Amino acid sequence: MSSNRTSATPLLDTIHTPGDLKRLSDGELAQLADELRTDVIDIVSETGGHLGSGLGVVELTVAIHAVFDTPDDTLIWDVSHQCYPHKVLTGRRDRMRTLRKKDGLSGFTKRSESPYDPFGAAHSSTSISAGLGFAVARDLEGKDGHVVCVIGDGAMTAGMAYEGFNNAGHLNSRIIVILNDNNMSISPPTGALSDHLNTLAQSDTVQRERSFFENMGFAYHGPVDGHDVPTLLETLRQLKEDGTGPVVLHAITRKGAGYVHAEAASDKYHGVSKFDVPSGKQSKSVPKAPSYTKVFANALIEEARQDDRVIAITAAMAEGTGVDLFGKQFPDRSFDVGIAEQHAVTFAGGLAASGMRPFCAIYSTFLQRGYDQVVHDIALQNLPVRFAIDRAGLVGADGATHAGAFDIGFLTNLPNFTVMAAADEAELVNMVKTATEHDIGPIAFRYPRGEGTGAQLPVQPVALPIGKGRIVDIGHTAALLSLGGRLEQCLEARALLSALGISVTVADARFAKPLDKELIEDLVETHELLVTVEEGATGGFGALVLHHLADQGLLDGRCGVRTMTLPDTFISQASPWEMYNEAGLNARQIADLVRVTLSRMGHGSRATLGGGSTRIQDRPLWTHHAEDR
Questions:
Q1: Of the residues 369, 386, 391, 595, which is catalytic?
Q2: One of 37, 110, 138, 255 is an active-site residue; which one?
Q3: Vertex 571 angle, CA 573 and 410, to 5°
Q4: Helix H segments across 330-472?
Q5: Residues with Cβ < 8 Å from 525, sequence gap 6 or more?
Q6: Residues 19 and 94 sit within 8 Å (Cβ to Cβ)
Q7: Cα separation of 276 and 283, whole Å?
């Protein structure tokens, strides 16, 4: 049966690999760019994800793949949240609607996904260093081929980009860097480099020859209109055939280009949920409780009203961390330093050494980038910097690159540090108060992504006693000692176990460092089994508990002890529930561990199911279905 429907993307429908672009005329490539933009908008309207950044590089993507011979030529996307058009053109169009879902395509470039993704990226400013590695390897092996790196102006605020430029200019190896200058990262651009790029865009040839890039040993070309396909094709063909050594092509683009609702939005629709294409209206669920991020921001604002030493710092994530809300109230005490976590940490250290009370608000996954500074500039000097660690634990669709898995381990092993984890939003408010008043050394508090539990916020926050946890529910057979956001799942596990006749205590550790040793010892001495539960990698809170119990001789057999952590693997994107299910940290898995462990220990607990009496079996009683979420 034939159809009279006309495809909205007739040229794109014929493209299966970048090689197919070689047969198209320049005019057809311009048409292809229009169709590609339409396709990306349609895809993301169904999947959600990064939209504005991809729309800004549609023409660049088409031109690069038309001129260069990927994957033989190496193409590296910095950050790579702009890679959706690239994925469509590189044989993945039929899977694009699995984007950011379990077992689907990653929202970033990923080496295991395609030969057209030679280098994975989801943190910024790595492209030039990685590209230089590819270029030097090519030269050492006597091979041909080009290396093209696409880096955004926002990524140019990070020190690693300058390190790459410095080394590339010195080695003089052939590498083409395309600077995607859209005057907009996730947050508006900051710093002197942004001013320099704006000056270059309006300068004459002589001034451009004195640019930062020329002084670093790069030949500077541009600026060019990053949405003008014929000009891009002509320029890239020239760069491909002419010249030696490292070059920079300065392309001026618009984030969200070609979609009116994205261009009009303050963040240019950087990250969106599913949306209606004609209206641009996003399908966001109505939250049952405020987000942890907003609770943190409001709590910090209240502290700042009472104390003019309170300062907020973020690294290009003002909206993501809530520092934008703080900045509206206290613009002189709010600092977005750009994608520069190392600088953010040491900048905060200087403020703390000067008697201020700085809060460094950074996602867990991004704090990793400033770890050396955390060690040497903060911990070693015992400076009272406050680290507000957003996105602790697994974060869903952004996948493994954005998981907050490691901060418990890498902070608790540092002398002088105090480390807290909020079980709910009320605890978070009190931890902000605790951190504000903590002037004797560095302190960190971590909290999950997304909405809170609905806990009632304290009218008057109180500073928590340092190193003291709390009992939430009392039992006598097994004890669940939770650190952070798994407390709600522990309470659900308690209810499941109670139905089987197993009495469970649930405690909230609050502190990973210093440990509440008295609480831990009491739980071991009064229960048959202690299970620690955390949203962090191995070597974190559970390991610290085991160290303490071993030192006290409390692992010698009277009470069983188990630890539940994230597994020793990177978990790919899925919904948060699916990710935690894969990690084995949902309520029924917690309950299974308790029940099976007690059975293996030879305890005679009995459970009544369906009116009958049954001994606890050494196998799961529950299967895990989506409806359990």
A1: 369
A2: 255
A3: 120
A4: 341-353, 364-367, 371-373, 407-412, 425-437
A5: 554, 559
A6: no
A7: 8
> Rounded to whole angstroms, how far apart are CA atoms 378 and 51?
37
Cα separation, 205 vs 311, whole angstroms: 42
Among 266-270, 512-516, 602-606, the least confident range: 602-606
pLDDT digits (tens, 9 = 90+) for 389-421: 999 999 999 999 999 999 999 999 999 999 999
Q: What percent of the chain has pLDDT over 90?
A: 82
- Of the candidates 35, 302, 319, 341, the residue annotated as catalytic is 341
Rounded CA separation 153/98 (Å): 29
Rg (CA), the chain: 27
600 is catalytic: no
Cα(144)–Cα(174) distance, rounded to whole angstroms? 10
pLDDT above 70 for 471: yes
Longest dimension (CA), the chain: 89
pLDDT number for residue 623: 38
Token pair for 600: 């293996």
Asked whether the beta carbons of 125 and 160 are under 8 A apart, the reply is yes
User: Is 288 an annotated catalytic residue?
Assistant: no
Task: Tell me, yes or no, if 254 is annotated catalytic.
Answer: no
pTM of the prediction? 0.89
Measured CA to CA, the distance from residue 89 to residue 59 in angstroms comes to: 12
- pLDDT tens, residue by residue, 224-282: 999 999 999 999 999 999 878 999 999 999 999 999 999 988 777 888 989 999 998 99
